[in-house]
Amino acid sequence: MVVDGQDRTLTVPWIPPAPYQRREIIQGEHEPHASIRPMRVLARTVFAESLHNAHRWLDELITDPDQTIETIAVRERKSERSIRMTSLAFVTPPIVAAAIEGRLPRGFGTKRLMDLPMLWSHQWTVLGLKVPVQS
Questions:
Q1: Does 14 map to a domain?
Q2: Is residue 96 part of a domain?
Q3: Which of 78, 84, 99, 122 is most buried (most C-beta within 10 Å)?
């Protein structure tokens, strides 16, 4: 940059952000605070896709009286059992957020989150997780 015939250099201090995101993994209620590996990326991807499908299929079943689990299964080329995964649509939002953000421990995937009780407070208990404190 040239100002009044003089060369000047503007220096802006900057530190690039770390490429790794630190996550606080949700742990069990009676477990000592330990370093636990987060859910695998593939498990998170499968969960997010399954959750999307569950909400879509549930919406179809609610809004279209002619729609059945059988018709959705035929259209999607899936088993009726996989269409019944609509139970994922009822997982408590904090558990969904923790799964998508990678804050659930490894081993928590679609299969483990599929058959949870409908009552949100019981979902935490069944999974053996401590309910996070609301701030």
A1: no
A2: yes
A3: 99
